[in-house]
Amino acid sequence: MPVNTDYETFEGMLSEDLIAEVAEFVSKLFSSPDGPKVDPKRYATRLRSNLIGCPWVFSGIARRDGRVVGLKLGCSHDPRSFDSYMGGVSPTARRQGVAEELARRQEVWCRAQGFQFITTETEYDNRAMMSLNLKRGFYVAGTVTARRAKLKVLMEKDLREPQETSEETPQTVDCVPSR
Q: pLDDT by residue (tens digit) across 25-61?
């Protein structure tokens, strides 16, 4: 039986409610039972500081039954290159096209904004993310040893190349900073 997934896209700084919801989702997604835990309040603070003052911000959220099951976040200070820096799908929604659709929406939005490149990085052992990015036309631009001495793979997609299909720009909701 097909599962209905609703997609929302947001432009600009997220509301405090959305920041809290995203932080809670990230906490559940990236905390491991036997390892480090992601504190939602600390992540919300980090997310706020990453997005504040950023002229271009894209957030894509996938929901099922009103609950977040996937997200794609990115921002840029550079009109040529967009940094897609956070994405994830809950285990119950994986391999069902959620990450693909969120990535597609982000790319369409980036093209509409006039960006020439999308950049991202992923841990070397995140095969699902690397596979998705390669299928979407990204190439490996390099590697870097990051936090906790874990190897990261830097990936980039040239948006100046022609699109394979015509895609509609997703309708976005403008967000305003909450005070």
A: 999 888 777 777 888 899 999 999 988 889 999 999 9
E-only strand ranges, the chain: 6-11, 56-64, 67-76, 81-89, 117-123, 139-146, 150-158, 172-174
* 38 occurs within a structural domain: yes
Return the CATH number at 43: 3.40.630.30
Enter the tokens of residue 3: 């599962």
What's the pTM value of the predicted model, to 2 decimals? 0.84
* Contact by Cβ (8 Å): 96, 138: no
Task: Please answer whether residues 4 and 64 qualify as being in contact, where contact means their C-beta atoms are separated by less than 8 angstroms.
Answer: yes
Helix, strand, coil fractions of the chain, as percent rounded to 5: 30, 35, 35
> 98 exposed, middle or buried (CB, 10 Å; 0-12, 13-18, 19+)?
buried
